[in-house]
Design goal:
By secondary structure, this protein is mostly helical. It has one domain (about 1-80): Orthogonal Bundle (434 Repressor (Amino-terminal Domain)). Helices cover about 70% and strands about 0% of the residues. It has 5 helices and no strands. The protein has helices at about 1-35, 40-45, 50-55, 65-75, 80. It starts with a helix and ends in an 11-residue tail after the last helix. The mean pLDDT is about 85.
């Protein structure tokens, strides 16, 4: 039973890493499609440039508040950003 729990925990951690990477890629894609720099977006969204870069590159366990600020700036609903799969496209 203990091994099953460990395998489930590892799978869960791996899927969260992949999901975090997906969110970062989506945010980077939106920024690039708008031809905006890290500095421009970070300043407008009220977060640091370093935090934005780390979110986009999945280098940090980001806080939902920082992602919510980015969604506000990009005018994207959180549920659309967090939707799994390709059935919902982010409109720019």
């Amino acid at each position: 039973m203990g091994q099953l729990r460990n395998k489930t925990a590892v799978r869960s951690r791996l899927s969260m890493l992949a999901y975090r990477k997906l969110i970062g890629l989506r945010l980077e894609s939106v920024r690039n499609s708008r031809n905006e720099t890290l500095n421009q977006v970070a300043e407008a969204a009220g977060i640091s440039r370093r935090t934005l870069r780390r979110i986009e590159k999945s280098e940090v366990n980001w806080k939902i508040l920082a992602v919510a600020r980015l969604c506000w700036y990009y005018d994207i609903k959180l549920n659309v950003l967090f939707a799994k799969g390709n059935h919902r496209k982010i409109k720019i």
